[in-house]
Amino acid sequence: MGTNGAAAYAGAARRSLRVTLAAGTGFFLFLYGFGETVAATYALFSAVSLAGLSRIPGTGRQRAGMVLRLIPAAWLLVVVGTFLAVRTWTAVAGMLVIGFALAFVAVGGPRPAGAAPGLQLLYILPSFPPYAPDTLGERLVGTTTGLLLLVLAEAFVLPDPPTLPYRELAARAAVVAERCAGELARAPYAPSPATGAAARAAGEALRPSNVPEAERPAGAGVRSRGLGHTGLAARTLLNRLGRLPAPPPGPEPDRDQEAALALLNAVARSAADTAALLRGAPAAREPRHPGPGPERARLAAAPTEGVGPAALRRRADLLEVADAALVLAAAAALAVRGRAAAPDVPSGRFWYARMWAPRLWWVRLMGNAGSRSVFFQNAVRTSLALAAARAVAGLDTLPHGFWAMLATLTLTRTTLEATRSSIRQALTGTLIGALATAGILSLVGTHTTVYAVVLLPLMLFTFTVGPVKGIGWSQALFTMTVALVFAQLAPATWRLAEVRLLDVLIGSAIGAVFGLLAWPRGARKEVRRAGAALLRSAAEAVVTTTAALTAEGVRDAEVPPEHKSLRHSLVLAESAFAQLQSEPGSVRGPRPVDWQSVLVAGHHTLWGAGRVLAPPASGRGPGDLHALPLEPAAAVELIRLGDRVAGRMLMLSAVLDPIEDSRRAPAAPYAYDGEAGTVPAGEPSGYYAADAWLASLLADLDRIADSTTAPAGAGATDAGGITGVTGGDVGRAGR
Known about the structure:
The protein is mostly helical. Helix content is 67%, strand content 1%. It contains 25 helices and two strands. It has helices at residues 3-33, 37-53, 60-84, 88-104, 110-124, 136-156, 166-184, 193-205, 222-243, 254-278, 293-300, 309-337, 357-367, 374-395, 401-411, 416-444, 448-469, 471-489, 495-517, 523-549, 564-582, 595-612, 632-656, 685-707, 730-733, and strands at 553-556, 624-627. Strands 1-2 form a two-stranded antiparallel sheet. Helix 10 (254-278) runs antiparallel to helix 11 and helix 14 crosses helix 19. The longest helix has 31 residues, at 3-33. It is elongated.
């Protein structure tokens, strides 16, 4: 057995011990201690539902907290299910509505998504005959006891190794940014190799593919959204610092050197304050130092007469660094303080900062209430399948129809091939388990003591081996486990195994049929479509921005370009990315696409376009800004660079979401084909700001391309692969 296999069995064994202790203790306490079969049944299945069937991510303490918060929801589900079981049609209607709601709650992030199957089981259990509202008290007592025992087991039995919170990962990135900015502020004005490597490692650590599911900031609230933007801003700042060139030689840069060093030191102090805030330092609620805003304004207003192109380009790069540091500080404040930090952050960049949690949840829900949403598709498919299974079980008086619905819930997958495979393996495993169960029931008969002795070791083995070996083993072992449970609740014969096999067959068939009617492919396809649409909208914004920059004239300063299409695409891409993070294992793989860098490119396009389209006021009116003319060579160069950036965005969008014509088209590397010094000195500062913005966008696109390029000798990647999409900042290195 390899290292990975041993680790998988060790993790499964820890989880198995916890669920076995919780479920077994509640079951035996009520059945043999108090003679309460109803409470015993609910105590066992409540623990199994949220620990065996569910896969709530996180450490034991995190899962315990989640289960504790779900107890009121569990009470509600048991009560509603009990009273709706009075008629088949009411039970079916309830299954349709509540089944959809429980599946759709996965929009809230990885933890709600992981708990959803267990909540479905808690509702399914009381939805079957007998209609016995007089036993509601026993059902609630059993449910509460089972869940409280599970909370204790998750919190105190064999605790899982701790994981690094995303806030700590962002804080570490901010610390590295502080060190990097400090080294750039002193000779030789470049980060050391060790600092450069640390910056790359800190940026990679913030990618969701490298973050445990429970720590991914995929929630709908202000803090979760702010934390997600903190990760984006931290990666952006590290990348900008890593690309900052050294001051040009000679006396020319002396005019900017003092302002540049002051700005870099301010960036370092701001990054240190951000790290302290993210780590919860008591005195860090308010920054200890002013941010780089004043230094940025001073450098932006510095005169350009007599300053060479190299120094002006470095000035523009420094302004990019300062902007990234300001965004990082604002996003971190939202992540820690929530809406209390809203007055201190720009509303345009952080549109959600001033919204209450119910409004943000409504935005998230409405954003997924459509046929393009994976969550909506899964919720429709699941609710229809469960309602149909409940109707079949009720109309045909299917014995143990609960098992049929459990099979429907657990055996349907998000692709046809996966469903076929899971059903085939499940039926094979169930058949083997049924044969073994029939043999045990025939040999042991009604000697319940034997079943009681065997149950706990069998549960421990089931929940250890099943999750690791796959669904076939799970079904075989779970068939035997459930049979031993029911054999203690009421006299059973070998025909119980036959019923179990029939129920699994019916439930699987129903799940497959309804899966074909509403068949999503998971969030991967949607995030590809949304990411590609974002890059196309960004390309349009780049072209229109460079066109505006090169056109002399008067613009209205009070009506900046809104880029509504880009804003809309960015919101959709963030929603799709949140969906992807809520699917277990969806952002992992041998070489997953760096979707976070796609969002970085979208944000940087939107924010940068607004920033570079703000030339100095000319005095021609309170709302007018006069765009200073560019020399023809500079205008041509800027348009050429903008077209190259836009074209590269379009090529990457075609790779992320390929159509037939672009499926095999490589995205050519960026290469500057001009000569150094072709842009004359004395160009307006707006030219160099746009030049730095476009060049840094190319660096953003490089990271996307690198993540979608298969390693040498590897096969096609999930993204379809990109050939020749490297070259980094070739253009700027040649100027």
